[in-house]
Fold NB-ARC domain-containing protein.
Amino acid sequence: MRPLVGDGGSVVVASSLTSTWMKQVREVAYDAEDYIDKFRLHHKGHQDYDGNLVTVSMRKIIRPLKTLNAMYSVANKIRDLNARAKKVSERRLRYKVETGGGATFDGHVARSSSSCNDWDRRLPALNIDESQLVWSKETEMCINSLECDDSATRRVVSIIGSGGLGKTTLALTVYNSPTVKAISTRAFVAVSQNYDLHILLQSLLTQLIGNASGPSSLVREETAKGRIKDVETWGISKLIIECNACLQHKRYFIVLDDLWSSEAWKHLKAVFPYDTKYSSRILITTRSHHVAENCSSDTIYKMAPLPEEESKELLFKRVFQKNECPKELEGVCQRIVEKCGGLPLAIVSVGGMLARMENKTEAEWKKMQNRLSGYELEPGGTIGGMRRILSLSYNDLPYHLKACFLYLSIFPESYEIKRGPLVRQWVAEGFIGRRTHESNMEKVAESYFSEFVSRSIVTPTRIATTGVVRGCKAHDIMLEVITYKSIQENFISFMGNQQYMAGGHDRIRRLSIRTCGSGTSDMEQEFRPRKRNKEHEDRSMNFSHARSLSILRCKNRPTTMIRFAKLKLLRVLDLEGCQWLSDQNLKEICKLSLLRYLSLRGTNVSKLPEQVGKLKELLTLDVRETFITKLPRTITQLRSLKHLLGGRYIHYPSLSRVKALERGSALIIPRGLKKMKSLEKIAHLDIGSSSLEELSELSHVTKLCAINNERGGEKWKPFVASLSKLCGSITHLSIIQSTKTDKGLKVFWELKSVPVVLEKLYLWGTLKALPPWLLNHSNLVDLSLRENFLGRESLKQLGDLPSLLSLRLYSESYVGEELCFRPNKFTSLKQLIIDNLSYLEKISFEGGATNLERLALAFFKDPGAEGGICGINQLPKLKEIEFFGGVIVDSLVETVKNEVREHPNKVRVYIHGQPIEQY
């Protein structure tokens, strides 16, 4: 193959060759996995023979013959794969394909040199005129933190944030500010993930000598050349010694830009003297909060996206060289700004393209808006630079995280990705490898999720009181980068209405159907096949190799008919919100014997077929928010099942934290529960109709949610007996007595073993006093109470729980007229939710709950002049107060507004989720 003329052409050809070779290797690996799974399917087919149809003697004859035929077929396939693999290897050698580098997002091959690659990565950021950015406030804050002279010792300040937020630009603005320019010994060092320590130290030493040599730039240059002659031959030790000597007994200012790992800091910190009197400063930019903490940062400044008004100002300056926009373009400008999501780099990049447009008309700008909504962003231009920087979040991930990262593209735009379902899907897909010290793959998957949050790849949307991120969203532009890469690598294909995107690959490995009968988005219009007739389209869609299928929030049946029974290799099937799902569909789904994850959440299905017992490899069965209650007898054949999730919740529309299980929605499990040894999470179990004595044999259960709909409390006794044997594993326990009874939950006083690892507890039912085992519990962090009729003494006892972070008091949980938080009580509490306590008239904070951050309140009636809330000023860490429920007491709201007016935190006040005037 002849390369194109010029260096640039050679690079493009090299990129094309590398991409083609990688595709061929990938497809060989995929096919090998397919053949293995097909043989497993054959083996499972024999196991499922019905004895009524084939006699035992006939089986002995037929089975070996069919197995021999399958083995012969697999052997032929392996021989073909071997031949293909050899050809792929020969092509790599013939065309001298480089395997050490990879194609970047805009089609250029990554350079092998760490230094060149590093600057290539930063060019789009460094070429932005920082005067265009609205950084005055941020720059001032950062400089103030650097100038803080409460200590003359060396201080480290970190700026953290995701790619494209402007960390490098802010660091450069600070570095070039008059305050820092007054420091003669200074340097700006770009680190990167795959840094070359030798080159990095050379750069640092050159800058230190050059900046400190003399008043004239020429003098500095000549002096620097003399002192660092033959520096390329110096060893690491000599470079460290020379750098250290340049910094000794001086005030210095160093910027370490784009620090990816704590290991890099360990290598570098020895260079910087820890002086005690010169007030030296080190400024670090990083994407990881973990890295910032490991650098012993005195101050951590977290970059936030630009607010809407400042985003507009930046865009207008870039396009119109002023802070105003023509009225006819205001609407489309607003949508473009929203698409950029406050990312300065994205705004400046898009602004540059808009500025070059000859005709600044609404029609032309709408074309740009549509392009931003799809994937046809032209590489090589300003947008290419933006995508290249955003794609670093993928390129620089460790290998074991890359598949998990790409998997995020399976979720539609603006979709809240819930941590629990996501990590369970990762496990089902086979993305999670066991660690030597961690046998629970879900724990490993959760650590991967936390890594994405730490790297600012995803934005948290729901954070539990314990600090655990429960939900997140991928930024729109980041999602486009992930989606582009997923299509490029044939990781996920996308379909919706008439769109069909497989990136030129002939086999679909994972499929995400984004929209179903809900209109056509701009993205779909951009990627809609041109003049493709339906017959050709249906023929070209080969789903038989698909490993996962995701059809989310599709109220209408997909326009392209998918036969579930044909998807023999499917491992993950997510049908959340598919209202069109039928019983016949479920029968087809139950033929997918390799299925490991099945979510029917939010569908209208009411019954699982008996054939569900054939899903021998199923790990997760999610039937929450459906009408399924009674499970078939064959459910107990699912020996691999870990997560059995059911029940329907009633939510307050304005406060998702407040919810209650709908009566009659719990799961009824048939006899044989003890066979399901792998179960870890059961929610919700109807104990009135289930076999409770078998529960004690499920030694791996960590989450158990049980409900009794019968009036008598006799059913709780065998449950408590079983629970006593599970106290060593239960971390999350919900006990619900949905009908009022005098005995209620008093039987739980008889719990013989203390659930020592219990962290989350929900008690719904009459108690009148707390069980003794609860009073001294040291690990409990989350407690929810409902209809317990507890008095003041019980509240005092709860105040002594050392780890309690969240307390929810629902209706009739407490019968006192006053809730008083006294000194040294509720010392760890961060969240308090009070939901319509009938007798409550007054809440007073008298030195207790000093760590409280969030308070949510619902009252039945006006508490009167003597009641209400007092002592808010004694909650130094309070951040927000929210009023919810059917009745909003105006006098109470006014009292709270008066209380928070003088609060130093400027506490936010909400009504039904909507903010009111801030003080």
The radius of gyration is 31 Å.
